[in-house]
From TrEMBL:
Keyword Oxidoreductase: no
A matching Pfam family: DctM
Protein's name according to its UniProt entry: TRAP C4-dicarboxylate transport system permease DctM subunit domain-containing protein
InterPro entries from the UniProt entry: DctM
Segments passing through the bilayer: 7-28, 48-69
All residue ranges annotated as the TRAP C4-dicarboxylate transport system permease DctM subunit domain in the record: 12-85
Length: 88
């Protein structure tokens, strides 16, 4: 199977999973794992493990939960609505 054909199959399974209502996180994690197991065999598991935990430990992602928390505080306190009215 050529890499181009495999990429198209993966895209098809991702779209199918979204249509079926499977959570996107499971689709984006599971489809590459299954296709990696088919294409590379058991050698993919250490690479997959290292890639997933390498992304989780990325320093740039530290700000994401704090940004969400800040947005929640602004929304709950009413400041966000006042800022919106002030600008528009």
């Amino acid at each position: 199977m050529t890499p181009e054909m495999m990429a198209m199959l993966m895209l098809g399974f991702i779209v199918l999973g979204i249509i079926l209502g499977i959570p996107v996180a499971y689709i984006l994690g599971g489809v590459p794992l299954v296709f990696g197991l088919i294409y590379f065999g058991d050698k993919i598991l250490p690479m997959y493990y290292a890639m997933v935990f390498g992304m989780v430990r990325a320093y740039a992602l530290v700000c994401v939960p704090l940004f969400i928390f800040m947005g929640t505080l602004l929304e709950r306190s009413g400041i966000a609505e006042n800022l919106y009215r002030g600008f528009f």
